[in-house]
Each structure stands twice: as structure tokens, then as C-alpha cells.
Amino acid sequence: MANLNRIKVVLIKRQKTGKWLAEQLEKSTCTVCKWCSNSMATFDKIAK
User: Fold this and answer.
1) Rounded to 5 degrees, what are φ and ψ at 5?
2) What DSSP state is assigned to residue 14?
3) Pair 38, 6: CB distance under 8 Å
4) Digits of tens for pLDDT over the chain (48 positions)?
5) Around 36, how many Cα atoms within 13 Å sit in the side-chain half-sphere?
6) What is the pLDDT, as a whole number, of residue 22?
7) What is the pLDDT, as a whole number, of residue 37?
8) How many CB atoms neighbour CB 4 within 10 A?
9) Residue extents of the structural domains in the chain
10) CATH superfamily for domain 6-47
């Protein structure tokens, strides 16, 4: 699996910020920042 963070890619493509996403999801900007900086390996571990 490629080490690609899809959240970050989509935000860039749509010209949105992590702050915008945090507001939409009612999450802290810190949480969204962690989502954007973590690798897919971390998400795989969480899913399992």
C-alpha cells in the first residue's frame, strides 16, 4: 500500500484547509492535523 494520505490530497484538490474540515466535522483542528499528518499504516492499525 502506498504511503499516501488521502485526506490531505483531497483538501489540496478542493482548496480547503484542515481548519475548514475541522469546522465541518465539529472536531478540533488538532485532531484533523493529526489525521492529515499520519500515514495510512496508522489508519490500518486503527481499522484492525
Assistant:
1) -95, 105
2) T
3) no
4) 455 678 888 999 999 999 999 999 999 999 888 888 876 666 677 777
5) 18
6) 93
7) 81
8) 9
9) 6-47
10) lambda repressor-like DNA-binding domains (1.10.260.40)
